[in-house]
Amino acid sequence: MALAAAIPVTLNFAPAPTLLGSILGAAIVILEGCLGIFNCHENWINYRSTAETLKKEGEFYKAQIGEYATADDPAKLFVERVEALVSREHTFWRTNARPSEKQGP
Q1: In Å, how far are 8, 11, 21, 69, 86 from 5, measured between CA atoms?
Q2: What is the sign of the dihedral through the CA atoms of 80, 99, 4 and 10?
Q3: Max avg pLDDT among 1-15, 69-83, 90-104
Q4: What is the DSSP letter of 14?
Q5: What pTM value is reported for the model?
Q6: Region at 16 (left for phi over 0; alpha for psi -120 to 50; beta for the rest)
């Protein structure tokens, strides 16, 4: 956003406004393209969701509340739930982090 905001300023005040404005515009296009190709926003949201869920599971296990309070083996339940979350995260990365593999040859 800072690059986009800088374009009108440079067009009015820079000694070579068209060249600098063109460079800033090209930089914006390149950065947006990289963000789109690598799904940075979606990856970050999924990562944070998984991290917060893992944190919650850890707290529930430590406090022995929720399903852990009634489980025959709370440690086993904890490992199963954490592994399920990690597996889900891994599946997300395999399907979304490498878009070229989804499209095929």
Answers
A1: 7, 11, 11, 54, 40
A2: positive
A3: 69-83
A4: -
A5: 0.64
A6: beta
